[in-house]
């Protein structure tokens, strides 16, 4: 057996690594050209929708850290949340460029009716199965969205989509693997997985709803028409369900299908989430952190 | 040589066997050469036990240490700070995982270590039993607590037990990032509004003494230190490390513009060391005995997460078992 010499790893200096390099991995919003390009107003509104989706779900997932069923899941869910914050920062930074607002002004100083996220993302975590069900729907949708977005005629949206799709691919795999384990594990885990899917399923339709703004932007190749993502998203979910022997539940309602998130109408869950997210920043107006 | 510790102990004769004498000689030689002991090498039972205790305590500290900081993830005051804090807490979970793995090479299971923790039979660093009432605590924890941890841990990269030393190399690199992000949080606060400066000074006041206590009791009251130093697990005494830490803090506090809350803190030219006030060891022993401000809260959170997640771990195990059965069936069908 070879034995490493005592100093095989050398001395570790506390100053050796550059902070900026390390921070690059935490979702810095300074991607190529992002500082320079100003979003046209309608594109900004579209970026805001996508950014709010990612930020709201990141805020939800952050709550699992220190509460997950095993340490590996503290790491995994934290990592997914971190990726989503990265997406949100790029998108909010770009959205804010249209009106001279920073990512933090958008995140911390907008009230509930100004948020544009879809309802799925603001739903409570529930138990681990419910979180996994929400992750499955969200990441299957995001995979389709970001794949299409990477071909956007808007260079910033295309760059965000191209970066995000690689990360979301892992999120989708994580959700699919856990769906299989929970659906095919014990009687209790199967019961909970079925319940989790039933809880989040009604919020799927809103993701595919077109409106005038997005239809105009899609015609210019800037945005992805939400209705065009339905087939791919549902097929990906159906594939996981088939292997997990789960049925897509009934329970779509006209009420949840039309949603309202894109128009600033939200379920009762967004308010408390924003109150917590924004409380400290709002106690110190004008402060920098 | 690889029998589990408890089996070997049960059958251990009063007189050492020839194998054990040879093992001890090889072990002594490796230690004398300042070389590494690896999992399959013979090692004295006391060395194994000391390491299991130290590494599992260290792992528990990382895991419990996630809590005071996770308290601010949802309320971090900017998206950049939120991302950094999340990454930091995630690193701590990762450190816990490496360290549990290192301890596992000594013959103890992770389930058993987790049980010891949630049943209150294992120790973890007392520092995490202090609460984090303000955002500035994120800065003070990074600067002072992670700073103290680095002083303790950099020498552990050379610890004689291979898996521990190697885990520490990676951990120390990440800890140094944690310390600087804490310093940067405080710097930003000290350059900010009056309320932010007060918040920063208040956090430094609360964390300074507990961070000095992280080095453990004074050398003349530290019963395990001598043996750990002889085994090349520990390289410097508690008081030496504490001095080194204070020496590092003083110039950094000047840059920050914070006051370290010790009126007697002064450089002593003659001793070439800092003079400081007596540490309040009564507080240290109270917190250590489980009567600190947040001991019960920290253990409760860990226990609740563990218990609430039991059905998930059972499902994963059951699913893996079914998959293995299916694979075996398929293999049988092919054969």
Q: Which helices and strands occur, and which strands form pairs?
A:
The complex is a heterodimer of chains A (289) and B (335).
Chain A: H1 19-23, H2 41-62, H3 71-97, H4 103-108, H5 119-122, H6 128-149, H7 155-183, H8 187-200, H9 212-219, H10 230-244, H11 254-258, H12 270-283
Chain B: H1 5-10, H2 18-32, H3 45-70, H4 79-104, H5 110-118, H6 136-153, H7 162-190, H8 194-213, H9 225-230, H10 238-256, E1 266-268, E2 273-275, H11 281-291, H12 295-308, H13 310-334
Antiparallel strand pairs in B: 1-2
Helix pairs in contact in B: 3-4, 4-7, 6-7, 6-8, 6-10
Summarize the structure.
The complex is a heterodimer of chains A (289) and B (335). Chain A is mainly α and 289 residues long.
User: What is the mean pLDDT of chain A?
Assistant: 89
In terms of per-residue confidence, which ranges of chain A show pLDDT below 50 for 5 or more consecutive residues? Answer: 1-35
Shape of chain A: globular
> What quaternary form is this?
heterodimer
């Amino acid at each position: 057996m070879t034995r490493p010499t005592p100093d095989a790893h050398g001395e570790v200096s506390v100053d050796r690594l550059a902070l900026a390099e390390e921070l690059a991995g935490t979702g810095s919003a300074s991607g190529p050209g992002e500082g320079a390009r100003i979003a046209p107003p309608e594109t900004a509104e579209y970026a805001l929708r996508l950014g709010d989706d990612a930020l709201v779900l990141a805020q939800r997932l952050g709550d699992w850290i220190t509460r997950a069923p095993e340490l590996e899941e503290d790491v995994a869910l934290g990592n997914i949340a971190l990726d989503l914050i990265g997406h949100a920062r790029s998108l909010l930074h770009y959205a804010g460029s249209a009106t001279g607002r920073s990512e933090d002004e958008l995140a911390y100083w907008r009230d509930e009716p100004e948020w544009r996220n879809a309802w799925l993302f603001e739903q409570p975590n529930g138990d681990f199965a419910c979180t996994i069900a929400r992750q499955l729907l969200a990441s299957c949708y995001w995979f389709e969205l970001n794949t299409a977005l990477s071909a956007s005629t808007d260079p910033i949206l295309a760059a965000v989509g191209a970066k995000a799709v690689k990360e979301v691919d892992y999120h989708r795999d994580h959700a699919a693997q856990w769906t299989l384990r929970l659906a095919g594990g014990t009687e209790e885990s199967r019961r909970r997985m079925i319940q989790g899917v039933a809880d989040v399923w009604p919020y799927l339709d809103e993701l595919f709803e077109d409106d005038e703004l997005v239809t105009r932007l899609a015609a210019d190749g800037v945005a992805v028409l939400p209705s065009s993502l339905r087939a791919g998203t549902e097929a990906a979910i159906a594939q996981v369900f088939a292997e997990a022997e789960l049925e897509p539940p009934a329970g779509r309602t006209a009420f949840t299908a039309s949603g309202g998130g894109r128009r600033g109408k939200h379920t009762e869950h967004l308010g408390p989430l924003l109150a917590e997210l924004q409380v400290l920043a709002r106690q110190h107006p004008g402060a920098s952190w | 040589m690889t029998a589990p510790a408890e089996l070997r102990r049960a059958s251990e004769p009063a007189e050492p066997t020839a194998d054990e004498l040879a093992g001890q000689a090889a072990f002594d030689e490796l230690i004398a050469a300042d070389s590494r002991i690896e999992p399959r090498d013979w090692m004295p039972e006391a060395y194994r036990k000391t390491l299991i205790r130290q590494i599992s305590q260290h792992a528990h500290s990382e895991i419990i240490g996630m809590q005071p900081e996770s308290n601010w993830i949802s309320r971090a005051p900017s998206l950049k700070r939120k991302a950094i804090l999340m990454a930091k807490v995630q690193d701590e979970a990762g450190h816990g995982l490496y360290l549990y793995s290192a301890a596992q090479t000594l013959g103890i299971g992770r389930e058993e270590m987790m049980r010891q923790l949630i049943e209150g039979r294992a120790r973890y660093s007392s520092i995490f039993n202090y609460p984090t009432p303000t955002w500035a605590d994120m800065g003070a924890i990074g600067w002072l607590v992670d700073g103290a941890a680095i002083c303790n841990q950099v020498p552990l990269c050379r610890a004689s037990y291979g898996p521990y030393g190697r885990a520490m190399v990676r951990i120390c690199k990440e800890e140094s990032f944690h310390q600087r992000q804490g310093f940067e949080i405080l710097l930003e606060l000290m350059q900010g509004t009056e309320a932010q400066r007060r918040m920063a000074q208040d956090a430094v006041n609360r964390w300074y003494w507990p961070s000095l206590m992280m080095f453990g009791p004074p050398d003349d009251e530290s019963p395990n230190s001598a043996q750990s130093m002889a085994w090349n697990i520990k390289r410097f005494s508690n008081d030496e490390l504490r001095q080194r830490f204070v020496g590092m803090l003083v110039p950094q506090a000047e840059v920050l513009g914070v006051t370290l809350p010790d009126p007697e803190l002064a450089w002593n030219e003659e001793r070439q060391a800092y003079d400081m006030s007596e540490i309040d060891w009564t507080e240290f022993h109270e917190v250590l005995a489980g009567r600190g401000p947040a001991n019960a809260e920290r253990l409760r959170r860990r226990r609740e997460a563990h218990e609430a997640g039991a059905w998930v771990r059972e499902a994963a195990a059951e699913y893996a078992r079914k998959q293995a059965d299916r694979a075996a069936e398929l293999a049988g069908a092919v054969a």
